[in-house]
Amino acid sequence: MTKPAQAIAVTNLHKRFGPLEVLKGVSLAANEGDVIAIIGGSGSGKSTFLRCINMLELPTSGSVTVHGETIAMKKDGHGGLMPSDRKQVQRLRTQLGMVFQSFNLWQHMTILQNVIEVPIHVLGKSKDEATAIGEALLHRVGLFEKRDAYPAFLSGGQQQRAAIARALAIQPLVMLFDEPTSALDPQLVGEVLTVIADLAKEKRTMILVTHEMKFARNVANHIVFLADGVIDEQGTPDEIFGNPKSERLKKFISSIH
Amino acid sequence: MTKPAQAIAVTNLHKRFGPLEVLKGVSLAANEGDVIAIIGGSGSGKSTFLRCINMLELPTSGSVTVHGETIAMKKDGHGGLMPSDRKQVQRLRTQLGMVFQSFNLWQHMTILQNVIEVPIHVLGKSKDEATAIGEALLHRVGLFEKRDAYPAFLSGGQQQRAAIARALAIQPLVMLFDEPTSALDPQLVGEVLTVIADLAKEKRTMILVTHEMKFARNVANHIVFLADGVIDEQGTPDEIFGNPKSERLKKFISSIH
Amino acid sequence: MADPISFLNWSLLALEPPGWGGVLLRGLMNSIEIAIGGYTFGLLLGIGGACGKLYGGPITRDLMECYTTIVRAVPELVLILLLYYAGTDALNYVLGLVGIGQVDISGLVAGIFVIGVVQGAYTTEVLRGAIKAVPAGQIEAARAYGMSPYKVMTRVTLPAMLPYAIPGLSNLWLIATKDTALLAVVGFSELTLVTRQAAGSTKAYLLFFCAAGVLYLMLTLVSDLIIRIIERRARRGFVEQS
Amino acid sequence: AEPLKVGFAAEPYPPFTSPDASGNWEGWEVEFEKAICAEAKLECVITPVAWDGIIPALTSKKIDMIIGSMSITEERLKTIDFSDKYYNTPTGVIGPKSETFEATPEGLKGKTIGVQVSTIHQVYASKYFGENGATVKEYQTQDEANNDLAAGRLDAVQADSIALGAFLKSDQGKECCDLKGMVKDDPAILGAGVGIGIRKGEDELKAKLNAAIKAIRANGTYDTFSKKYFDFDVYGQ
Amino acid sequence: MSETPTTDITTHAMAITPEDLPAAEGFFKPHRIVLLAIAAGLVFCIVWFMRWDWIPQYLPRLGYGIMITLAMLFSTSILGFLLAVPLGLVQVTGPWPLKALAKGFCTVVRGTPLLLQLWLLYYGLGSLFPQFPAIRQSFLWPYLRESWPYGVAALTISFAAYEGEVMRGAFAGVPAGEIEAARAYGMSRWTLFRRIWLPRAIHRALPTLTGETVLQLKATPLVATITVIDVYAVISKVRQDTYITYEPLLLLALIYMCLTGILVIAFRTLENRIPTRGA
Ligand SMILES: Nc1ncnc2c1ncn2[C@@H]1O[C@H](COP(=O)(O)OP(=O)(O)OP(=O)(O)O)[C@@H](O)[C@H]1O
Ligand SMILES: Nc1ncnc2c1ncn2[C@@H]1O[C@H](COP(=O)(O)OP(=O)(O)OP(=O)(O)O)[C@@H](O)[C@H]1O
Ligand SMILES: [Mg+2]
Ligand SMILES: [Mg+2]
After folding, report:
1. Is B24 exposed, middle or buried (0-12, 13-18, 19+ CB in 10 A)?
2. Torsion angle of alpha carbons C198, C200, C203, C207, nearest 10°?
3. I need a surface site. Which of A8, B107, B246, E96 has the fewest CB within 10 A?
């Protein structure tokens, strides 16, 4: 087999909120098929890192390359960067299927409408085509019967599964998950994790921020431990959980019962 | 030592919501110093039972005795009972310090005001006396610095501890806890359980509904398993968890990982 | 000829006659008087109405429902006409039956009565909504610690409801000040009518209507300021929603 | 005893009634009211009421009499009672200077004519002009009708000739408009002059007022104050 | 500064909204039957003892008046809403001069009585126009001569100001996450506004919009004071022609109640098409 292509590469990413430097030079590359789990204490900058990848947060410096194409950036005049080509960012974002912690489903649309919205109005698919794909995806996440329900009438776990279907519908190169289960109560966590584990089995490229260590260990092939704005340690799950080297990682792992 | 006095006794309690009979004859007695944990599946009537004890829910039949004094009831004309002496209920309720799952702190009062409200306006204590007791209690639950904060500005765990202080301030004979930690996220559960465990060490009479089995096992001296409106099994923690007899209890315990 | 200059004839606004400034101010005072009276009367009706609707028997509740429904479905202007003629008539009739005999209902009293009845229905709804917005658990907690129903009401329900009621109540106050303008149609000399008289007599329509507008606006802004202070006090302990 | 409340139309109706900046009412009818009350030894207070609701105000006892240039008509007599007439003047039509037409149904065809609501003029204009191709627009006050005529929103205004005269003499009226003529009389509509409106059944008051009107006519008071406003006899025939 | 729920409380308190409609089931209870019987008796007395003989004569005119009232209501609500959207949007995202302008507009309009605004436009502004020969000669003059354009203008402005405030809250209240999600999937700014932000804001504002529209209906009779012949003006005419005090007003109240009822039912149907849960 050939070497898998590089799906995403982040180089020396810095991010500063006023006086607070949250990310102090983070680099990460994911090949197609990789499942990378990002772990770390609260406030260590995991979410910020994920949001910088699709430019929801603008990095202070550093670069992001999606499928070989680097996002063109220019100085914003306040010591940070901004995209020099908005169209490019909009295009590359459709390669990055973000799934938010708090679902962020559009409340004024049914589940199916949520799923087909971007394919139709951004990717320019026909309604029939988008609907066919959307219904297949809803089947996949076990929500086909709920396709005409409005988000407010679903349980948290169902909403999160719908959000995953919505992200999948844009057929992204990489799926980005930001703590996809932490807004759910324990009973609902399971159903969402099952869907993600299935995606991992299919060798879909994913970057996920999670607090569920057991899950990270089972699903990811590479684990990144963020601390104090830098990558403190990274490696395979067995290395990270079986044989942590840095003191901070040891402490972090032991603190999770 | 003399035999401890009986703090509370519930005899053959029935409760019906329309067609649904939630409690089908439950009896329970607690001596002073007892810590009784009530466990059971969702919808098994645990909350209803607790709420019947202090007449927040009126039982369909059965009687409740607090410290030897039975609450006088009369027929309400719709097949249920109602208290025949409202004053008596009000008086006996001050013997039962209820702590709600959702805290129910009074939002328009500071934490200290919440704690001294009942001592002053129901028990008729002087403001100085109530404040002294209240501040001591807030110290005890670790909230003294927050005494002038309003509930909305506290974390869930802090609110629940304040609610416990409020219930303690009426110096009740029995504390009733209804899932005091289930509205909290896992990080905050610990601080509330610590406070309750402390109370148990002091031999304060408590009846608590909880889903935290490990905690119930450590803290309670008697465990009651409610199922389908009746007490399916009861006994010491070791009996219940170590050697469950009924099938339902076995299944219930195994379902909790 | 009402040449453009006369619209800017500021001397028409002088406080002393022949300037009309004094008249406008008296009209404003009349408006404020009616607004205060009507609002207070409405508040009393509203408290009664809200209690009736929430805690009253089935008949009280239905009657209250009719009252608020009718007032909320019919334009204020129509209500004011109806109440002004029929309401005061009926009042006199009832007083006559009771044996007090005819009372002389002055325009001021009639205005307060009319605005009050309209405001009463609105206040009922605001207060009812506010009381219902108090989380049931707060009231349950009060009962669980042995408070008597009266104590529950005065110590918990009422103070806890205030933050929910104040925005609505303060809007109603602003509405009351503006509704007084409708009394112009029954010839009560509040600000709007005297403005019209002044404008008609001097033909300086634009000047006087603008002047009255400014007066109303000032009233609103000053009220707003006071309301905000009250609100800040009452909302202690409540997290600001964006 | 209680003072009698004399209802005035709250809207200015110069030169008969109009409030000044100090809130006092002035005009011919104010002097008439003073004279009548003095003569009949009645204690009177002026109570402004919306013209639109002045009859209900009388019947519901908010006021006790109406002195408001109210013509005595059949229709009104069904609801209220009147004293004898205290003035009577012909009805005229005015229009913009730039146009020439007669105050006849033919002359006003296709034109928009303004009248004050609830007046004999409204009834007359509807019947004679409205039914013959003119649009009749009703105003709450005479003033507004005049104003709209000056503003070009109306082609003509029909009203009491005295009120019109006063308008034509004002700055605004001088500039824009002139008298187009008097309308053909129709006593059934235009009535038998202006009287004091009172509630039905108050015959004692009516008698007093009638006597007072006679008295001030006879003793010259009426003419004295009329001279201040008019250079002809407003009492009419 | 009033946030959305605030406006909502007051609007609801002032106007019947779909929530107030009684549910058909459980409406008839024993005491209700008694009350209904009393009400029926009352209505009978009103019909029997009061004077209603004037109705047939005025029926066509009443119909015409109702049409005018409805035309006023719909035209001004629609125009006002179209104005309210930019007013609300600008207050949330606009550059500060526009923001201040919109805010000032809303404050001034909401701070003064509608009756005064109406008169200001009609008697004030309207009487200025003819002094400019250019306007008098322009094609607009036939309209400016009429009174209804002033009524429409005043009601539109008023609706826009009140609803603009509602839309401001609605725009601001759309959860940031939903907008972020749209951006994260590559929507352009215009698509985002058209597909997510605006519909979501309208969705949020719909219940308040119902109330505001009923309030707008209640404001329409004011145009009668500037000689627009709406149903209120027709009834005024009846009162002035016949000197009957109460009956026409009672009929008028009944007409408005029916109109409100129809409006509210129509809105309920509309609202039910997109269900919302909770608040
Ligand atoms: N918009 C912002 N403005 C200022 N500071 C911010 C902003 N967003 C995040 N931060 C700060 O940056 C730091 C990192 O935040 P981030 O949300 O990335 O942490 P995290 O690792 O995702 O934590 P958690 O596990 O709690 O979600 C925190 O200290 C946070 O307070
Ligand atoms: N006010 C009520 N009206 C009707 N049914 C009720 C009411 N309160 C409770 N129930 C029903 O009674 C049953 C028992 O409720 P209860 O709240 O006591 O259960 P629980 O054991 O506390 O469950 P959980 O663990 O979920 O809190 C449930 O089926 C519930 O739906
Ligand atoms: Mg995070
Ligand atoms: Mg429970």
Report:
1. middle
2. 40
3. E96
Distance (Å, whole) CA E52 – CA E59: 12
Q: Quick check: CB of A39 below 6 Å from ligand 1?
A: no
Ligand 1 centroid–CA A204 distance in Å is 27
E89: left (phi over 0), alpha (psi -120 to 50) or beta: alpha
pLDDT of B151-177, one tens digit each?
A: 888 888 889 999 999 999 998 989 999
Residue E199 exposure: Cα atoms within 13 Å on the Cβ side: 12
C18 upstream amide cis, omega within 30 of 0: yes
Amino acid at residue number B18: G
pLDDT higher than 80, residue C98: no
Least confident residue range of A237-251, C23-37, C180-194, E180-194: C180-194
Residue D69 has pLDDT above 90, yes or no: no
- Is residue E257 one of the residues assigned to a domain? yes
Reduced 3-state DSSP string for chain B: CCCCCEEEEEEEEEEEECCEEEEEEEEEEEECCCEEEEEECCCCCHHHHHHHHCCCCCCCEEEEEECCEECCEEECCCCCEEECCHHHHHHHHCCEEEECCCCCCCCCCCHHHHHHHHHHHCCCCCHHHHHHHHHHHHHHCCCHHHCCCCHHHCCHHHHHHHHHHHHHHCCCCEEEEECCCCCCCHHHHHHHHHHHHHHHHCCCCEEEECCCHHHHHHHCCEEEEEECCEEEEEECHHHHHHCCCCHHHHHHHHHCC
Q: Which of D115, D144, D147, D157 to mutate to test the interface with E (most CBs of E within 10 A)?
A: D144
Residue B64 CA to residue B8 CA, distance in Å, equals 8
**Which of E116, E125, E256 comes nearest C73 by C-beta?**
E256
Structural domain tally of chain E?
1
Q: Is residue E52 part of a domain?
A: no
The answer for residues whose C-beta is within 8 angstroms of residue B218's C-beta and 6 or more apart is: B197, B237
Q: Please state the φ and ψ torsions of residue D46, each to the nearest 5 degrees.
A: -80, 130
| Residue E23 belongs to a domain | no
In a 13 Å sphere around the CA of C42, the CA atoms on its Cβ side amount to: 33
Q: Inform me whether the pLDDT recorded for C4 exceeds 60.
A: no
Find out whether the beta carbon of A62 lies less than 6 Å from any atom of ligand 1.
Answer: no
Identify the band that residue C102 occupies on the pLDDT scale cut at 50, 70 and 90: low
Domains along the sequence of chain C with CATH: 4-234 (1.10.3720.10)
The pLDDT of residue C2: 44
* Helix E231-242 × helix E55-93 angle, to 10°: 140
CATH of the domain at E78: 1.10.3720.10
- Answer yes or no: is pLDDT of E28 > 80: no
List the B230-235 sheet strands across, edge first.
B96-99, B174-178, B206-209, B35-40, B222-227, B230-235
Say what the pLDDT of residue D9 is.
83
Local confidence band at E14 (pLDDT 50, 70, 90 cut-offs): confident
Q: What mean pLDDT value characterizes chain B?
A: 89
Enter the pTM of the model: 0.81
Cβ B13 vs Cβ B25: under 8 Å: yes
A21 CA distance to ligand 1 middle (Å):
10
Using a CB–CB cutoff of 8 Å, tell me whether C167 touches chain D: no
Predicted complex ipTM? 0.78
Distance from CA of E149 to the nearest CA of D (A): 13
Give the C-alpha separation, C135 to C157, whole Å: 9
Measuring CA to CA, which residue among C171, C161, C176 is closest to residue C129?
C161
- The pLDDT assigned to B112 comes to 95
For residue E238, being part of any structural domain is answered with yes
The parent domain of residue E12 ranges over 3-16+60-273
Contacts of B78-85 with C-beta under 8 Å, sequence gap 24+, read B79/B16, B80/B16, B82/B58, B83/B55, B83/B58
